Amino acid sequence: MNAPLHVASFNIHKGLSQFNRRLTVHELRERLGNLGTDIVFLQEVQHSHGLRASRFQHWPGKPQHEFLAGHVYTDFAYGKNCVYDTGHHGNAILSRYKILNWENEDISAHAFESRGMLHCQIEVPGIGQPVHCINVHLALTEAGRKRQMAMISARVRRMVPDDAPLILAGDFNDWRMRACAYFKDELGLVEVFETHHGKPARSYPSILPMFQLDRIYVRRFHIDKAHVHTGNAWHRISDHAALTATLSPV
């Protein structure tokens, strides 16, 4: 039997605490390093921000995805989504395994809310073909999300073979719980918490999770475990809770 694959998805709120009061990226790197995950899907990753770099004394000297990778994750990819005068942020994937190639596709629903779909192919030992990993952070409006889910489906049909292992993770902002049925019907994807625990994880706000916004969808994997990371140590570093899952290829 192939070794299980450990994955995580986390909206890191640009490495800042809720309301941007504290720099949390150093605590975040320690926690990510201790999770024991192989592939991490991160949203709201700050590549650069001139004003915050001058405000916070210990602001990293490199982009957050590189800083968070540290000595644990040897490969990483970053998709620039939102650009402004002082810098830009987007999605990132960190991996212990080789990222063979990656592309960031613009899936913005309108000019005032920049969004991207970061798609990596990762060479995972014991799995005979590349694992397709797609990281997203969807729109705040239902109309925008509907368009973006259609774009995700179109890319998967175009770029991912039917028999290839696939992980789609991120912050879906899916307040009305539309995405699970949509991705199951359109792509044969299942959500790990819904499959393992009966419903998607409550992940927002992290101090008292009520909303099921963050998801991990998979295809060609068996779900061994699924866990949402809450409690004081976690809600101090982001307004979202982190999700982890243990997956076995089938």
TrEMBL record:
Keywords tagged on the record: Endonuclease, Hydrolase, Nuclease
Keyword check for Hydrolase: yes
UniProt GO molecular function: endonuclease activity
Domain Endonuclease/exonuclease/phosphatase: 8-240
Alphabetical list of InterPro entries matching this protein: Endo/exonu/phosph_ase_sf, Endo/exonuclease/phosphatase, GPI-anchor_lipid_remodeler
Highest taxon listed in the record's lineage: Bacteria
Nuclease keyword on record: yes
Protein name: Endonuclease/exonuclease/phosphatase family protein
Species for this entry: Thiobacillus sedimenti
